[in-house]
Amino acid sequence: MPVRIGEQLFYTTSETCAKVGISRATLSRWIKDGLLQTLYKDRRGWRLFTEDDLNTIQAETRRIEVEERP
Hints:
Elements: E1 3-5, E2 8-10, H1 13-20, H2 24-32, E3 40-41, E4 47-48, H3 51-68
Antiparallel strand pairs: 1-2, 3-4
C-alpha cells in the first residue's frame, strides 16, 4: 500500500515493479543506469518511488517493447 508523506504518495520497490510489470532486477539495472534522476529513501534506506517515477519507468517499458517489435 502506498505511503503518503506530506502531499505525495510513495510506492515501495515491490509495488512499483508490480504496477509497471517489470522485475526487481530490471528496475535495479535501470536505476543504476540513471533512468531516475532523484531517488527517495525511507528511514530504513529502502527506495521509494513517486507517481512521476512510475510514469518514467512505464514509459521506458513501452519504449523497449516498441523497439523489440519487428
